[in-house]
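A reminder from the course coordinator: this example appears on the midterm review sheet, so study it carefully.

Given structure:
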């Protein structure tokens, strides 16, 4: 084992996050290289300092699944690369002539690093909720941030008779549009709001949405084109079966 591998395992040991096999490898390396003990002490002191005086915090619901989903999206390299290191030559440092770790080993380190960071955040109660929010942001919120960050971002707001407001956000370069509502009333059971691009005289279905306390952030499905108006109708649950509006629009926002 080289010193870099040991450093990675030392962080996991400080967090009590090592598997039984890695724990054995770590303890064996520590015995063989007492000069590396300073790293072990430093990581243990850091973990203790961060956790000092902070009550344990349970991880937010869904955070483990979200983290694993992020890890699963990371390229894992060639299946021929060895993902495990049996006792012996695989632990030797590069100076001894052993080959450097392959793609699978590098992916394992990345997964371990993500898991260690999560364990640290949850263990000391710092940023766990923020991390969960980041990993579980709705696609509509992500799209809204993309639009707002674009150089050609535009928006238009209309006020309804009951005082509710609806704001359309769009960007030609991003090719997306998002509707944000405030004060929009709930619809009756079995009904839903449906979004439409109105392109000339043609309404194009763009998905359905519900409101929560009058508020909604809804991404329109499909790519917006210049001059499209954005409209909302009330349809049966799941959307209009014909693909055409069956009621007069309750919201119409011109974008040109």
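Designed residues:
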């Amino acid at each position: 084992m080289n010193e870099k591998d040991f450093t990675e395992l030392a962080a996991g040991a400080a967090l009590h996050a090592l598997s039984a096999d890695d724990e054995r490898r770590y303890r064996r390396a520590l015995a063989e290289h007492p000069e590396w003990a300073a790293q072990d002490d430093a990581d243990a002191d850091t973990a203790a300092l961060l956790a000092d005086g902070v009550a344990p915090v349970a991880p937010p619901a869904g955070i483990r699944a979200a983290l694993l989903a992020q890890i699963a999206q990371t390229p894992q390299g060639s299946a021929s690369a060895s993902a495990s290191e049996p006792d012996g030559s695989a632990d030797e440092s590069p100076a001894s002539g052993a080959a450097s770790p392959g793609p699978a080993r590098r992916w394992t380190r990345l997964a371990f690093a993500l898991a260690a960071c999560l364990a640290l955040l949850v263990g000391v109660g710092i940023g766990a909720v923020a991390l969960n929010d980041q990993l579980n942001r709705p696609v509509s919120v992500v799209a809204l941030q993309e639009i707002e960050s674009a150089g050609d971002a535009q928006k238009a707001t209309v006020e309804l008779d009951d005082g509710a407001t609806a704001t359309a956000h769009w960007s030609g370069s991003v090719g997306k549009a998002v509707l944000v509502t405030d004060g929009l009333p709930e619809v009756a059971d079995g009904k839903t709001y449906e979004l439409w691009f109105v392109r000339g005289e043609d309404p194009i279905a763009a998905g359905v949405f519900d409101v929560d306390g009058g508020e909604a952030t809804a991404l329109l499905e499909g790519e917006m084109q210049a001059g499209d108006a954005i409209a909302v109708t009330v349809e049966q649950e799941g959307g209009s079966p014909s693909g055409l509006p069956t009621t007069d629009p309750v919201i119409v926002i011109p974008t040109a």
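Strands lie at 154-159, 165-171, 176-182, 191-199, 202-209, 216-219, 229-236, 251-253. The longest strand covers residues 191-199.
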